[in-house]
Amino acid sequence: MNKIPFGPTYEEMLNPKKMLKKVRNKALKALKEDELDPINLFNITWKDENNEVRKIVLPKELTGVDANIVVMLGKGFPSGSHKVGPAYSTLIEGCVDGYIIPGEHTILGPSTGNFGIGVSYICNLMGYEAVVIMPDNMSKERYERIQKYGAKLDLTPGSESDVILTLERTYKLKEDPKNRALAQFELFPNYRFHRYVTGNSAIEAVKGIGNGRIAAFCSAPGSAGTIAAGDEIKKKFPECKIAALEPYECSTLANGGRGQHRIEGIGDKMCTLIHNILTTDFVILIKDEETVQGLKVIHDGINALKELGIPEETANYMRELFGPSGICNILGAIKMAKYLKLGPDDNVVTIATDSFDRYNSVIENLNSRYLEVEDFVVRRWAQDIFLGQKDDYVYDFRRKDVKQQLFSQKEKDWTKFGYSVEYLDSMKNPEFWESEYSKISYYNEKIKEMR
């Protein structure tokens, strides 16, 4: 068997101090100088060079709530998005298990963008050929970056909310024995990475902020990997409420809605296999146009932000930090803070999966659809979308009888792909999720041993 190109353990991704110092230093140097150096595998972490979680506490002049809204920043990951974490985790587990063999298998990456970018990037570093299967109506920047890292594109009809077609195409390509899928919607390395690495990083992120606890965690599911962080947060802070956000235009979890929308990376018309329904307390709907308008405010509305009382330095710093799904998460966090009536000691944590660098075309599209996008329009959007955000479209899923709606959706989505009702029913037991999570210690030791 060809040599497996190893990277970090889960433990090292959570805490880079556990790496050999010379490896960490070499990786940090490569992150700035050569993103295609394989040592960048050791930069897959939420931590910066000072071992601090990359984050921003949003100005209250923007959010209009007393609670502290803490946004963890995915921009600093190699390839520019935290999705590189689950892509690596899924690939390395497959290597350790002998399911994926270097030089023999081609990697498939079903995605709507960031995971596909992550798959292309990781396969470049680890020496695999890759094919990314995704809808044909995503932002051009995503396609360009995937191809830049060397993967081939296999495009399916439709847009963001037609991801089911990418899954069907992936299953068809898997019939060829040389293909191995990093199936983010159904394989549990995605869950393990986010529960362990993102969840524990979120717990660290609030130290010294407010009461040092997390009152709510908000995440918009695409694959529902990121929201797994809530499982670990709840273990530390049982009072924490977990909110899944989805587009108002594609409200599949909330009420079975299945429309088209503009928020890339989320709202995929399904309840994914790895979504732990047991820990989801609320589902919140966010209007897609507000996320794009909000992105315009943050990126182009420096004057509007200054008028709100935000320092110019802060406004300039925020310009490049978010994409549409990040704005969606911020709006959901504001809604949750208002709905729960949180105060100045309370913290709401959310995620910016990526940053603005892959969404210029989204702003260009918005500018083309409005007759006026001058400062006075952007000022009004800042007031209406951020400060004027209401606590509406919040659905309470804490009762068991209401959760059954989500279990039924999952059954509808996944029995067609060969999963049995008995297997899906086993997910109603917390022990199922603890069993999947416990495998982290096995993979930590196996990676170290084989490396």
Question: How far from one another are the termini?
Answer: 14 Å
List SSEs in N-to-C order.
Answer: HHEHEHEHEHEHEHEHEHEHHHHEHHEHHH
| Helix/strand class | alpha/beta
| Whole-number mean pLDDT | 95
DSSP, total strands? 11
Unreliable runs: none
**Strand line-up across the major sheet:** 1-2-10-7-8-9-11
Number of helices: 19
Report on this model:
With 451 residues, the chain is an alpha/beta fold. It has a domain at 55-79 and 193-396: Rossmann fold. It is built from 19 helices and eleven strands. It has helices at residues 10-14, 21-33, 60-63, 84-96, 114-126, 140-148, 163-173, 189-205, 229-236, 252-255, 288-300, 302-307, 312-318, 324-339, 360-369, 375-387, 400-414, 421-426, 430-450, and strands spanning 55-57, 68-73, 106-110, 130-135, 152-156, 179-181, 216-219, 241-247, 282-286, 347-352, 394-396. The strands form two sheets. The protein has a seven-stranded mixed sheet, with helices on both faces. Helix 4 (84-96) packs across helix 8, helix 8 packs across helix 19 and helix 11 packs across helix 16. The mean pLDDT is 95.
